[in-house]
Amino acid sequence: MDSSGAVAPSSIAKKSSLCRQFMSRPPKLLPRSRRDALTRSEVMSRIRSRDTAPERWIGKELRSLGAHYRRHVASLPGTPDFANKSRRWALFVHGCFWHSHKGCHLASTPKSNLAYWRPKLERNLDRDYQNLQALKRLGFRVQVIWECEIKSRTLRERLKRFLPRTYLKIA
Ligand SMILES: [Zn+2]
Asked: Tens digit of pLDDT for each residue in 35-91?
């Protein structure tokens, strides 16, 4: 923006793409000053979008382990990020902030607007629990991968243990 208050076209384009990125949370709750103070990963954890970088990474790992899956399976409780209905497994990739990862540095409750955030995060937690139970009642094995675990050395081993053995003939 120049001194007259006019906005150059290129900066409008930049702004609108930024707005799209932040669409998932109400802008007034996270003023610009606060947003600037956030680390990139904090910002990412606040965005609930499909096909996030952690999900892409998990997808690659699953494929390399020979797993077949569908993405965002809306016909199952909680719309698992990855699932195979005939093999009865479902996997969620949870953002640590949105799903209140216990003891995780990415999951700290915002200090302002507690009246807004607390019930919202508690609802998420409750919904996650209900979905997990519903899937288990359907006979599904369920795995939750946290955003902060992505690329950790132990994660591939965990995925290996979780997936049906038949996938792992080649791996
Ligand atoms: Zn975490």
From this structure: 455 555 555 555 556 678 899 999 999 999 999 999 999 999 999 999 999 999 999
Residues with C-beta atoms within 5 A of ion ligand 1: 96, 101, 104, 106, 146, 148
Expressed in angstroms and rounded, the spacing between residue 74 Cα and the centre of ligand 1 is: 24
26 class by beta-carbon count within 10 Å (0-12 exposed, 13-18 middle, 19+ buried):
exposed
Ligand 1 centroid distance, CA of 150 (Å): 9
- Angle at the Cα of 39 from the Cα atoms of 32 and 81, rounded to 5 degrees: 105
Ligand 1 centroid to residue 12 C-alpha, Å: 34
Confidence label for 11 from pLDDT (cuts 50, 70 and 90): very low
Query: The domain 49-169 is classified under which CATH number: 3.40.50.20, 3.40.960.10, 3.40.50.150, 3.30.830.10?
Result: 3.40.960.10
Name the pTM for this structure.
Answer: 0.68
> Where along the chain do its domains lie?
49-169
From the CA of 28, how far away is ligand 1's center (Å)?
A: 25
